[in-house]
Each structure stands twice: as C-alpha cells, then as structure tokens.
Amino acid sequence: MATPQELLADALQSLKALQDEGRVAIRSRDLGRQARERLLRGGYLQRVIKGWYVPARPDEQPGESTAWYASFWEFCATYLEYRFGDEWALSPEQSILLHAGNTTVPRQLLVRSPAASNNITELVHGTSMLEVKGNIPPKGQLEKSNGLRVYQLPYALIHAAPRHYINHANDMRVALGLLGDASEILPALLEGGHSTIAGRLAGALRNIGRDRIGEDILKSMRAAGYTVNETDPFEDNVSITFPLRERSPYVNRIRGYWESMRGDIIKAFPEPPGIPSDIKGYLKSVDDVYTSDAYHSLSIEGYRVSEELINRVRDGSWNPDDIKADRKHRDAMAARGYWLAFQEVKKSVERVLNKDNAGDVAYAYHGDWYRALFTPSVEASILEISDLAGYRSDQVYIRNSMHVPPKKEAILDCMTALFDQLREEEHPAVRIVLGHWIFVYTHPYMDGNGRMGRFLMNVMLASGGYPWTVITVDRRNGYMAALEEASVNENIKPFAEFLATSLNGTKRTQ
Q: CB-hemisphere CA count at 13 Å for 354?
C-alpha cells in the first residue's frame, strides 16, 4: 500500500503536469478527488469557486492572497472562455485600464456577454465578477490581451462612461496618449455619429497636449455635418503634455503620476534643509545609523537578523570560509549583502552632497548597490552569477498586493522614465516620495526591491539635506498599506505623509 507521502507525491506530479501545460485555472475534473483533497490539505491548491481552483504555495499563511492575485487574470480568462466561448468581452472601462498598462486586480471585474445571467460571482479575497447580459461589439472591434477579450482602444475610448475620466484620470490620459493620429479613432466616431463623444475626446486630447488630434476630430465631424461642442471631461485641474512620439503606456503612466501627485507631496513634506556644509558630519551620521537601518530594513523583508549578526558583519568577524553557519545561513547572506550595499549607497550619498545631480547618480550607480546586495549569495552559490546581470527577466508579484507590477518587457521603459523624472525634478520631496514609490511599483528586480527602494529614498533625502531615515519594522503595516494605496488607488497622500512623519530632526511646515 502506498504511503501518505507517496500519494501526495503522485498528486503533486499530476498538478505539475497541468502547470507544465500552462494551466492556472484548474477544474475539479482535471484531478482525481483524492489527489485534489490531498493538494488542498497540503496548501498546494486554493479553491476559488465551486469546482475551480488555482495553484498555491504551502508556505502561505491562512488568508494570504498572493497566489490568488498572481493567478487572477489568467483564471478569469480561462473561466470566461469556458462559460461563454468567444462571446464575451471585458467592459470598455476595464479594457482602457489594460491598454494603459494598469493590471491591478479589480475588486469587481465587469464582463459583458449575450449569454450572461446578470449575476455576481463571488470569488476569493474580496473579489468578484459581475456578468452583464448584453450585446458585445463585432469581432473586428475586439482584440485579445493575455487571453482576455478587450475592446480595441478606439472603441473602448468611445464607449467608456464619462465618470471614468474622473475616477481613473491618469489611466484615461495614458490611453489617450496611445493615439498617434485622429485617423485611428475618426472612422468609429463618424460611423456611429458620436458627436457628443467626439467633443469630449477633443477636449480630453487637448488636456494632454494633443491639440492637433483634437482639432482634426472636431473639423472632420463638423465637415460631416455634425454639431460638436468641445468639453474637457477631466476635473482634477491637471494638465499634462505627453510627447507625440511616445507610445509606451508605461512611460506616459509615470509622467502622469509625477505631474498629478507632486503638489500633494510638496504640501505633506517639511521644507528641505538644503545640502549641509559639513559633508563629513552628515556621512558620519549615516554611519552611526547603520545598525538600526540594517536591522529594520532586513526585518521588514522578513529576514531574522540580530544586532549581534549585523555588528559581526560590520566589524569583519563574519567568516563564511571557516564558520559553516555564516556560509549557509540565508539571513547571514542578507546581512553581509546589506553591509556591502550600504557602503556603495554611502558613496552615492557623498556624490549628491557634492551637488551631483541626484537622478544622474541614482541612474549611474543603482546597479552597483544591487550587485553588492547579492554578491555574498552568488559567492555562496545560493544564486547564479547571471542573477546579477540586470533587471528581472520574469514576472513578479508582491505578497498580498492587488498591484501587479509591469511585465518584464516594460521594465526598461519604466526605469528610463523614472530616472528621467528624478533628473529633471526640482523639489527633493518629490524625488524622495515618487522615487521610492515608482521603484517598488515597477519592481525591476526578482528580489531586493524593497531594500533598493529605501536606498534610493535615502539618496534622494540627501539631495534635500534631510537626514538618513530608517523605516522601522514596527511601522511595517502602515508602510505597506500606504504603498498599496498609492499603487492600487493612485492616492499618494498617505505615503507622502508616512515618509514625512518618519523623518528625524526636520521641522515640518504648517
């Protein structure tokens, strides 16, 4: 008779075969009942709805949502294909979000299909799917994006509700910025006689600096005999110009965030003290805070470190050649890497204090910080040398976050845009808050993004003369919640206020 371990191994083999086929949404019939129950008990499967499951990790804590958020879009695509064949589409509003590079998991996914039953399907972790019975556009007006049936951009813009310009202003601006010429949307406007929508689109395009495209829409509609009144549907008093030749939604997304958020950040932050004249004194204060910074930054990431371990690394008594625990212990590797990276970051701080452009410094040297952070793990053969080659080459997910970082193909665009904005930004508070947030929003590396984001934050703090600042592990929940609020709801105020209240020895403005 097979042992429980052998039966579990057989069940895992069946699950692996499904995953090797690229299956994320797994139906009851894909696995035998006993195998399915073993996988559920072992934490290798998570039930979503009756008869449907997604793979999970057994080390996830009860109630943890990471496996579900990582599987959400692929699960929905497979489930909807099963329900409706090819007779379904996401709403025009959700289609716009995806065109704009916004893959945040929605609380409720709105789907249209002639075969829908106008029901809400409750999923897991507070998410649901609302299926609305109704006609969908002809196939020539739809396209597939990662298995999801979405409206092509011109039709999504035409059919989106006016409130979407208010509720998702940055996404709408980014989507409009993908239009390179009026000819991309005029045929659909003229065919449908959408005069009111044409006036709204013309005003929205003027709002992002695409005046010529807006004018061409107005002239063409009027020439066809329609009465068109231009209106600006945005209500946030933000005007952003996107370069006509820039077609990356990710670049325009970062530019849009920067312009729309900087005012709130400046209001939240204390006045910058300015670059100190005593550079040696500033650098000494950085050295003095090292032990506390390393302890808290590593603890936030889940490493179990002690001040004793940190100080052994600092004074050189950490010995991976002779002490077996130092060589193999994951936490020791992290502590040693943090020490090496801290030294590289301190060099960058010194360059900034000597009035080098902070954006240029971060661009030129952030790779050195990262390589130092993980060199001990490479030397101990825990990581491959190729892991230090550069930005990530696969998709990553943030634990328990509804925010899905950009796909790997978009990383270079995102990082180029980030460093361009840091280089050009005049106010240090904006560099501090948006530098940190957009770095972790992008998540450019497979690991170490939180530590790297805090290093970047502290280099930007030096550019305003603010002190090196430690985010303590006892404030981790507030820190993560503020990052989530910015990434999911595009509300930067809580994160700006969190960092402002984390500063030491800096007077707040009223």
A: 10
Record the pTM: 0.90
| Cα–Cα dist 2/418, whole Å | 56
Structure tokens at 2: 């097979």
CB distance 462 to 468 below 8 Å: yes
Residues linked to residue 149 through DSSP beta bridges, in sequence order? 144
Longest dimension (CA), the chain: 85
Tokens of 378: 């490479």
Token pair of 321 as six digits: 């050649």
**What kind and span of H or E run contains 485?**
helix 476-489
Sort strands 52-55 and 45-49 into parallel, antiparallel or unpaired.
antiparallel
Q: Report the alpha-carbon distance of residue 248 to residue 21 in Å, rounded.
A: 31
Q: Tell me the C-alpha to C-alpha distance, in Å, between residue 246 and each of 172, 186, 412.
A: 16, 21, 14
What are the residue boundaries of the structural domains of the chain, listed by start? 4-59, 94-104+120-247, 250-502
d(CA 217, CA 198) in angstroms, rounded, equals 7
How many Cα atoms within 13 Å fall on the side-chain side of residue 32?
A: 10
Residues whose CB is less than 8 angstroms from the CB of residue 204 and which lie 6 or more positions away in sequence, other chains included: 165, 172, 173, 176, 214, 232, 233, 234
Residue found by looking up tokens 């002490």 in the block: 323
Query: What residues have CB less than 8 Å from 444, skipping those under 6 apart?
Result: 391, 392, 411, 414, 415
Strand (E) or helix (H) holding 166: helix 164-167
Instruction: Let me know if 115 is exposed, middle or buried by CB neighbors in 10 A (0-12, 13-18, 19+).
Output: exposed
Instruction: Give Cβ neighbours of residue 340 (< 8 Å, ≥ 6 apart).
Output: 372, 373, 375, 376
Please give the radius of gyration of the chain, using alpha carbons only, rounded to the nearest integer. 26
The stretches in the chain having pLDDT less than 50 are: 327-328, 505-510
| 3-state secondary structure labels for all residues of 177-220 | HCCCCHHHCHHHHHHHCCHHHHHHHHHHHHHCCCHHHHHHHHHH
Specify the pLDDT at position 234.
Answer: 95
Residue with token string 């530019």: 255
Polymer length in residues for the chain: 510
Which ranges constitute the DSSP H helices of 208-357?
Answer: 211-223, 249-268, 279-288, 290-300, 307-315, 324-328, 330-353
- Predicted confidence at residue 508, as pLDDT, reads 38
Where b means 16+ CB within 10 Å and e means fewer, 379-393 reads ebeebeeebbeebbe
**Which residues lie below 8 Å from residue 144, measured CB to CB, with a gap of 6+?**
150
Among residues 138, 14, 142, 48, the alpha carbon closest in space to that of 90 is found at: 142
CATH fourth-level superfamily of 250-502: Fido-like domain (1.10.3290.10)
Predicted pLDDT at 507: 42
Amino acid 489 reads: N
DSSP string, 45-82: EEEEETTEEEE--TTSPTT--HHHHHHHHHHHHHHHHH
CA-CA distance, 461 to 428, in Å (whole number)? 7
